[in-house]
Amino acid sequence: MKVTKAQAQANRAHIVETASALFRERGYDGVGVADLMAAAGFTHGGFYKHFGSKADLMAESAACGIAQTAALTAGVDTPDFVRAYVSREHRDARASGCTMAALGGDAARQPEAVRSTFVAGIESLLAELSRAGTALDGADPEQARARSLGILTHVVGAIVLSRACPDDSPLADEILTVCRDSILASVDLPGSPSAKTRASARERSAS
């Protein structure tokens, strides 16, 4: 039975989504084409009907995963983003978590097409965070971008270091707690420890 163009496109999208989750969970070198296609419900031989190489799929699946994170970030207040990102739930959800944290180290050793996808993805996340920062306190675009870059690198690093520890290691949770509080405090966002302390001080002085 001949596969229609629409079905072929749907199959391709399914393979990309499956690959995106598997790569985040196991790393680029931890997933072979045969295993990937089997997980998606297709035969190994069908892979090259859709992709020229595994690297092509790696780049496309990275773009898919990063787009998912950007979509979740859109419209979210920066403090809420930090709390959700630097959390045990995100730390443990490798397959559905942020592609940057799961595959950033792997991407550095991959072909340029994959690394270029990460560049575009980083820019998209920065744009979302910068918009949120500008709306939050009126910072100019350059200031908002600089602050967003600091936040993004810090939250990604926190997840990477926490995941490097055994799941039951107290250090895994300590890294998340310390980094989350530090990020919120350093950028002085509503809800951060420093903001709450000053708000309490103002209330006491006014009473």
UniProtKB/TrEMBL annotation:
Residues that span the membrane, as ranges: none
Which PANTHER family does the protein's record reference? TRANSCRIPTIONAL REGULATORY PROTEIN
Please report the stretch or stretches of sequence annotated as the HTH tetR-type domain: 9-69
Pfam families found in the cross-reference section: TetR_N
* GO MF terms, alphabetically ordered: DNA binding
User: What name appears for this protein in its UniProt entry?
Assistant: TetR family transcriptional regulator
* Keywords carried by this UniProt record: DNA-binding, Plasmid, Transcription, Transcription regulation
- Ranges annotated as DNA-binding: 32-51
